[in-house]
Design brief:
23 strands; about 400 residues; 4 domains; elongated; about 35% strand; single chain; Elongation Factor Tu (Ef-tu), domain 3; disordered C terminus; OB fold (Dihydrolipoamide Acetyltransferase, E2P); 6-stranded antiparallel β-barrel
């Protein structure tokens, strides 16, 4: 019985010794893993020529906008368009009842015939008076009266001709309202049969509105500091926004991710708004497909600096510490160092670094969560440089 208990105790001691041995091995493995520096991937910054871009929000406005109002008063007889359709310059839009103007033209024509008949009589009377004057049959005063009558008759003919031409214009031109521009017409404001008030006063009847669609303008505002910066660059013949226009810009709509629409600045205002401290700029864009509509919002990107050579790193490699931005680099000894940087614009997946890095720095682009400033890391491999963005000349040619 004593021997059996001794054997059992020996077996337990052996198992306990084996378990302690395994625990010791596990601790050694963990210590070895802990002693191995974490692995990170590095890459050198990309050097490339870039241009800073300023972004502003604005609205589209039509190059031309015309309110269709009648010159004549009368009853609307016909409408010759569909609401919202595209119209061409000269297309017939409205017809006002022409009958009153036809009657007025006939009356003016009759008045003209009467004036011409009176002129013919005064011409003959003057010729007879000239013979009588030579024969001393009438006085010079009577002859002068006949000269005056002929002059008055000539003036009456000229007046009646002008009035007939006006009546002819009312009938042929103003009783039919045509589109003065190419564009898109809105909805009709008056139905057939209504009385239309014409003229030049403020009480005239608005019939419809036409806005041009191709090309289209985009208006935006920017602050006084930006205006001064653009003006100084323009004075140095830099290719940035200026009062001279023709600066290439890009634009995106609210449902688009990229600035895919190209245009040019064609105007910058000459007065800074005193209440807001901003000045108005304007760009022009092609609108052949009609996607841009007056009043639509968009975001425009304007060149904000002359071309310069900059360093770019993947945007994912940039960290944030409160209000400051930083990247982590690996020095020659394999130690992680934190560098505070000044950032520029985002170009694709790369971010411009204006200050805080050199071209020879090895920036950590993968394994950022494993890297700690002051700790040693293992550089497993050097990442191939990210694809550089196109230069301004290449982007323009492409």
């Amino acid at each position: 019985m004593t021997k059996a208990r001794s054997a059992t105790s020996s077996a337990r001691l052996a198992v306990l010794a084996g378990a302690l041995s395994l625990v010791g091995c596990g601790e050694n493995v963990q210590q070895q893993k802990a002693a191995t520096p974490p692995t990170v991937t590095i890459a050198h910054p990309v050097q490339h020529t870039v241009i800073d871009q300023d972004e502003y929000v604005g609205r589209f406005v039509a190059v031309e906008s015309v309110e269709i109002r009648g010159r004549l008063s009368g009853y609307l007889q016909a409408i010759h368009f569909t609401d919202g359709q595209l119209v061409r310059k000269g297309d017939l839009l409205f017809t006002i009842d022409r009958r009153p103007f036809e009657i007025a033209l006939d009356q003016m024509r009759a008045n003209l015939n009467q004036a011409r008949a009176n002129l013919a009589f005064t011409v003959g009377d003057l010729a007879r008076g000239k013979e009588l004057l030579q024969n001393k049959t009438i006085t010079e005063q009577s002859y002068d009266q006949r000269v005056q009558a002929k002059t008055v008759a000539e003036a009456a003919v000229a007046s009646q001709e002008a009035m007939m031409h006006s009546a002819q214009l009312d009938l042929d031109e103003y009783s039919e309202l045509r589109s003065p521009i190419d564009g898109r017409i809105g909805d009709r404001r008056v139905a057939v049969g209504n009385l239309v008030t014409g003229g030049t006063g403020g009480s005239t009847t608005l019939l419809a509105i036409i806005v041009s669609v191709e090309p289209i303008r985009f208006e935006f505002t920017f602050d006084e500091a930006s205006y001064l910066r653009y003006s100084r660059f323009a004075a140095s013949s830099k290719d940035v926004a200026s009062m001279h226009g023709n600066v290439p810009v890009t634009l995106k709509l609210i449902d688009e991710k990229d600035f895919v629409h190209s245009g040019k600045i064609d105007f910058i205002d000459n007065v800074i708004d005193r209440s807001s401290g901003t000045i108005r700029g304007r760009a022009v864009f092609d609108n052949a497909d009609g996607i841009f509509t007056p009043g639509m919002f968009g975001r425009i990107r304007v060149p904000g600096s002359p071309p310069y050579t900059a360093l770019l790193v993947p945007d994912a490699a940039i960290g944030t510490e409160q209000a400051r931005k930083y990247v982590q680099v690996v020095d020659d000894g394999g130690i992680v160092r934190q560098r505070y940087v000044t950032l520029g614009v985002l170009d694709g997946s790369l971010r411009v670094v204006k200050d805080g890095l050199t071209a020879s720095d090895r920036v950590i682009v993968n394994g950022l969560m494993r890297a700690r400033p002051g700790a040693k890391v293992t550089v497993e491999e050097e990442a191939s440089p990210a694809t550089a963005p196109k230069s301004p000349a290449e982007a323009k040619s492409g």
